[in-house]
Each structure stands twice: as C-alpha cells, then as structure tokens.
Design goal:
single chain; alpha+beta; 4 domains; 5-stranded antiparallel sheet; 5-stranded mixed sheet; extended
Length: 463
C-alpha cells in the first residue's frame, strides 16, 4: 500500500472510530437523560397528584365533619353525609366513593349499579384485588393505591391513583382518585419526540462523518498533517454543539409541557365565560348548568390561589418581609373596612426563611383576630429593625379583652397561644397588652438569634 493511502487510512479510521464512539456516547447519554427525565417527571407528577388527592379528601371530610362530629350514627345522618359526598364531584372523572369495611359499596356517583354489592373479591385487569387493597390501606390509616378502574368519560379501563381513609365510627372507607392515562400519553409523546431527536442526531453525525471522510480524501493530497488536526478539532466542536442542541431541545420540551398545560387550564375558564356570555338568549335549563360550572371553576381557582397564598405567599420570597406584611395588612383590613398603616424603622436586613414565615404567620393570626373580634376602625403595624433586636408590633383601637381571662380559658386564646409558641420556637418573646380602645401585640427577636439561624441555613445550603 502506498504511503499516501496509509496516511489517508490513518486519518479516516480514527475519524470514523471517533464518530462512532461519539454516536454511541450521545445515544447512551440521551437514553440515560431521557430515563432520568421520565422518572423525575413521573415523580413530580405523582407528587402533585398525591397532594391534590389529599386536598380533595380533606375537602370531603371537612364537608361531612359537622355530621360525623355530631355523634349520631343513625341511617338518616349517614344518608345526609352520602348526599353531600355525591355532590362533591370535580370534572367528568372526579368523584368520591364509599364502601363499608366489609367491601360493600355504599355510594358511587358514576356507577350506581355497584351500590349495595359486595366487591371485596373484585379484581382489576391486572388481577389485583382492587377493593381489598383499598380497604387494607384505609384500615392501616389511609394512603394511596394504584389500580385499574373504568374511566367514566371514556368507559375504558385506565390506571388510577386512589387515596382512601377510614371513618372508623361509621365503619366507612371514603376515597377518591385521579386517572393517570393522560400522563402516560404525555410521556409517550415525550418518548416519541426524544426518539425522533435521537434519530436526527444519528443522521446528523453520520452526515458529518461522511462529509469528513470526503474532505479527507479530497484534501489528503494537498494538505499537511496540521490541516488534518484542524479538521479533527472542528469535528469535535460540531459534536459538542450537537450535544448542546439536544440539551436546548429538552429544555424547550420541558417549557412547552409546563406552559401548555397552564394555558389550557386558563383557557377552559375563558371558553366557559365566553360561551356563557353568548348564550344570553338561551333557556335557563341550558344556562344554569353552565353558570354552575363556571362558578365551580372560579371557586376552584380561588381556592387553589388562596391555599397557595396561605401555605407560602410568593411576595414573602420575592419582595421580602416588609412588602409581604404591607400587602397582607392592606388585603385583610380593606375587606373588613378597617384603616391600615404600616411603619418600618431601621434598615431592613435579609432574614432567614423560618423567621420571615414566623413573623408573617403572627401578623396573619393577629389581623384575623382583629377582623373577627375587635370591632376596630384602625390598625397600625410596626416592623423595627434594631441593632440588638427585631420587633413586630400590631396595634388596634378595638374593644379590647381581658388578657388573663383569655389566657386561662381552656377554649379561648388559641390564636394567642399559637403566636406565642411560634416566636418562642425561634428564640423570641411575645407580649400582649389590651384595654378598651387599645390592644397591642408584640413579638421581639434578638438579632443574635437571627444571625444564628441565618448561619445554620447557610450551612445546610452549602452541605
């Protein structure tokens, strides 16, 4: 073999080998990332669904709690509870079901033919004893079960995540569930897209390989070995760009999933409102269900927003404690027709999340008590950042109350005890002064405690 062909062969073989290894590495890496993405997406999805189911069951229990806590166990009170639960549906496939602990179906809004039947030995498409698993989970204190069940909107069997709990005194198992087939379809579309991207990547790498080989053979007679090194460097850069483009595509798919889903939820409300406005001349039999659906959708959106705000207000993390307290005071007092002012003394400092949450909750509890009991016309909030201590003070001009009497009463003053326990848990002090025309609630936290908690939070973040 002539020398120039040996040189070309030495250039072509490493190139093809490198591209093959790059292709294999890209494929393996992409499969690994796709699997991780699928698992993370499923974990996040299941976590969100589990939280949603807990909220639904909590809503159902709070709806029938006045009946259950009445102490009555007769059939009339139970039938009343069943009626309340039967009306608590959410969407075409969202409903609550009831069984006694022996497996007899007591209520099923979507499949009334099951009512009164003992389904303890019923098995789903996978052969799993569905009702028996649900009963065992409820008997163990409640929890989640994945099983197969008929989806009302399609009349087809689909995977379902159920959450059940037990009403022990009534010998009931109450539960609800969310179908998972929509998520499986999203995952399948994501897998198909990733497969298409992988195929396109392999074709692109193959095209680069073919182009590189052609360039080597064409230019091998005229370029020096240094030119071959430059070509290899360019090919390596192209391979890195291929990997980067795949990462950007995955990020784009993630944003599309998030934004698309969110826009769909918002568009449902807009479409219902538009349809309702256009049916101004329709009969009440047509408009009334649409109005109820719109009202329920508004209530659900308001409830989700309110629940999110109560759990963790966004402003507390984005704009800081003073802005969050000012917004809370304005919102709470404006609803009750109470004047509100807020003063901030000293230079605000960045506080640990735990301290911000404690002070926000204390203010929230105090404003709620003022709104309910004080009959005041004005509230003043003071947040003072001192050198030695951080102090929160809330004043109102309401009717006042007997502090000692409320403190010693077993059923009153729960909110005050909660506020005291919150600030003391982070090393602070709590004080209450009240008389007709003036009530003052103060929470004081030494700056040493603030610095100690900030250092602990930084250590945890670093670890």
């Amino acid at each position: 073999m002539r020398l120039k062909y040996k040189i070309l062969l030495l250039a072509v073989v490493p190139l093809l080998a490198s591209l093959a290894m790059i292709a294999v590495a890209v494929q393996v890496r992409q499969n690994d990332l796709a699997l991780r993405q699928r698992l993370q997406l499923r974990a996040a999805y299941m976590g969100a669904k589990e939280t949603e189911l807990r909220h639904y069951v909590a809503l159902a229990l709070s709806t029938i709690s006045p009946l259950y806590n009445s102490g009555r166990d007769d059939d009339a009170i139970k039938q009343e509870a069943m009626k309340h639960l039967a009306r608590l549906d959410y969407g075409a496939d969202g409903y609550f079901f009831l069984y006694d602990m022996q497996g007899v179906n007591l209520m099923h809004p979507r499949q009334p033919e099951l009512v009164g039947r003992n389904l303890i030995d019923l098995r789903d498409a996978n052969g799993d004893p569905t009702i028996r698993m649900l009963l065992e989970r409820a008997h163990a204190g409640g929890g989640f079960v994945v099983y197969q069940w008929q989806k009302p909107s399609t009349q087809k069997t689909a995977p379902k995540l159920g959450y059940v709990t037990q009403l022990e005194r009534w010998n009931w198992m109450i539960g609800t569930g969310l179908y998972l087939d929509d998520f499986d379809a999203v995952i399948q579309r994501l897998d198909d897209e990733l497969e298409r991207n992988a195929h396109a990547t392999m074709v692109f790498i193959a095209g680069i390989g073919g182009l590189g080989v052609a360039l080597i053979f064409v230019s091998g007679l005229v370029f020096s070995f240094s030119e071959f090194k430059v070509s290899d460097a360019k090919l390596a850069l192209l391979a890195r760009k291929v990997v980067d483009s795949q990462e950007e595509e995955r990020a784009h798919l993630s944003r599309e999933l998030h934004d698309g889903t969110s826009q769909t939820l918002v568009s449902v409300k807009l479409l219902i409102e538009s349809a309702y406005d256009r049916m101004s001349g329709a009969e009440d039999a047509v408009r009334a269900p649409l109005a109820r659906a719109l009202e329920r959708l508004r209530d659900a959106l308001a409830e989700v927003r309110g629940m999110s705000h109560r759990l963790r207000p966004v402003m507390l993390d984005t704009l800081g404690l003073p802005a969050a307290l000012h917004s809370l005071g304005d919102e709470t007092c404006s609803v009750a027709g109470i004047g509100f002012t807020m003063d901030v003394e000293g230079d605000p400092v960045d506080l640990p999340d735990d301290i911000k949450t404690v002070l926000f909750r204390i203010t929230q509890e105090a404003l709620t008590n003022i709104q309910k009991h004080a009959a005041s016309t004005r509230v003043t909030l003071l947040l003072a950042f001192g050198r030695d201590a951080l102090r929160l003070s809330i004043h109102d001009d309401g009717r006042g109350f007997d502090v000692e009497s409320v403190r010693q009463h077993p059923r009153r003053g729960i909110g005050l005890r909660n506020m005291r326990e919150r600030i003391e848990a982070v090393g602070g002090q709590f004080a209450v002064h009240s008389q007709p025309g003036l009530t003052r609630i103060s929470a004081t936290l030494p700056m040493s405690a603030v610095r100690r908690m900030a250092a602990a939070a930084a250590t945890v973040a670093t670890a």
